[in-house]
Amino acid sequence: MTHISKISPTANSNPVTLLIRPSGGRPNEEGAEHGRRRRRAVVFGHRWPWLCRPAPGRDAAPLRHLVRPGRRPRSSISLDPGRGRRPWPRPPIRPRAVYVSADLRNRAHLVKAFEGIEVVFHMAAPDSSINNHQLHYSVNVEVKRLIYTSSPSVVFDGVHGIFNGDETMPYPDKFNDSYSETKAEGEKLVVKANGRNGLLTCCIRPSSIFGPGDRLLVPSLYIIGDGNNVNDFTYVENVAHAHICAEQTLASEVGAKKAGGQAYFITNMEPIKFWEFMSLILEGLGYKRPSTKIPVTFMMPIAHMVESTYKLLSRYGMPVPQLTPSRIRLLSCNRTFNCSKAKDQIGYEPIVSLKDGLENTIESYSHLKAEHKKTTSKAYLCLGGGKIANTLLWKDQKQSVTALLLLIAIYYYLFTSGYTLITAMAKLLSFVALFLFIHGALPKKIFGYKIEKMPPSYFNISAEQAQSLACSATYSWNNGIGILRSLCKGKDWSLMFKVIIFLLSLNVLGMMSLQTIYKIGVFITFFAFYVYEKWEDAIDNSFNDAFSCLLRLKSEATQRL
């Protein structure tokens, strides 16, 4: 029977490890029947805890590779900080492992974990979005006895794309981020350690892992870049299979000579456009394919700003952002790899196709399906619905483009013609009057082409429209009065924070020219509302997180006073 015990992590350790220790077994288990010597192993895991346990609604597919007949129970180590506080799911029907939490960076914990262990599968790493060199260094470099799960990013410099790259590619002079740099350092140590004291080492470089329960692969509603970059993805069960292939090869004398101290690229061997892959996930969840392309040059400054904000506010609880410069580079570059070496030397072949892997992944994202989402956005309600909302939110693209072109034409006429405002308006009205006069004087048909005439009531405002405008004005006025009443109570800090931001924005606008304000206004009305509608939840969560950080700052300042 499996016994579960826990080792409390050190007080200042962020990455908490999860350790599965071998439980007792009978000497004549199935392995003996198959005539194979059982090998004990320890598995380090983080992003893929289900590699070592059954996934919801599915059998323990990756687990069966590790605890099939002929293998002793494994260990699994996770870097999930909350795992020590959350119970593990019920183990498989035939439990063969004990789960213990520990700190992966604690030498004493690891020494105890390695007692009686022959094979180490090191699959752990902190979130690659955390650009913390010390954290990544402590996890990726201070390890010595393992089959190391590295990353293709060890040969990626963040600038040049990789097409059909193989293991002869050198490490770059400059890495994309701390994650890649420390992964490379760890890989070098593992390769160098091969053969010392009879130990054998091997490195696996799985490309763009995906699968059920992935917390990092969140489909985007926008395409970053031109959308033509090609990528190699790897289904998580194929990653588990690759580790078993490497371990089996190292276990044999002949295989150890060719695989010891080697690194292998691992993929599904089905290169696909990165954004086509994302589109397949979105379609499976019931969303439309992303069509809006955002240039990398536009996103990169925003990513740098987000990263800088995180560095300032991370100690106050700000969550790790996924919009970082290194992530933008990964999303916009070609990254395909050749698995011939892994196929020839360790016998790796994908056991789950890309299509089947996508189906399993989409099934695990059922909580993100489109039918669970709201139909009316806050942006739509804020704009009052109707034609204005449809135009500014690009629901009627023809109308939106027409309005935008008209505003651009007005901008060039008013601000670049050199006229004063009154002169420009007078000339504009003269042009409109001349156009209407000529249009009215034209016959109904010219060369068989019918000219649509504007009725006399074309510019009239109906009673319903006037009432709607009056209601909108009344609503805005009453809403402003309501805000003032709430502020007078002195209790709503969230509202006070919003008012301060609004007034500061007005102060900034007051220092700008009318020309600049016009450009900013057009951008906000036609793009900011649209972006907010698409990323409403993410933006709201970011705002709430920022507000929580401000509350912590306020609390600390109050305590000091």
From TrEMBL:
The chain crosses the membrane at residues 401-422, 428-447, 493-510. It holds the Pfam family 3Beta_HSD. One of its GO terms (biological process) is steroid biosynthetic process. Residues 1-16 have a biased composition (Polar residues). Its main location: endoplasmic reticulum. It is found in: Endoplasmic reticulum membrane. Residues 1-38, 61-92 are annotated as: Disordered. PROSITE patterns: RETICULON. Coiled coil: none annotated. One of its GO terms (cellular component) is endoplasmic reticulum membrane. This is Reticulon-like protein. It comes from Musa troglodytarum. The lineage of its organism: Eukaryota, Viridiplantae, Streptophyta, Embryophyta, Tracheophyta.
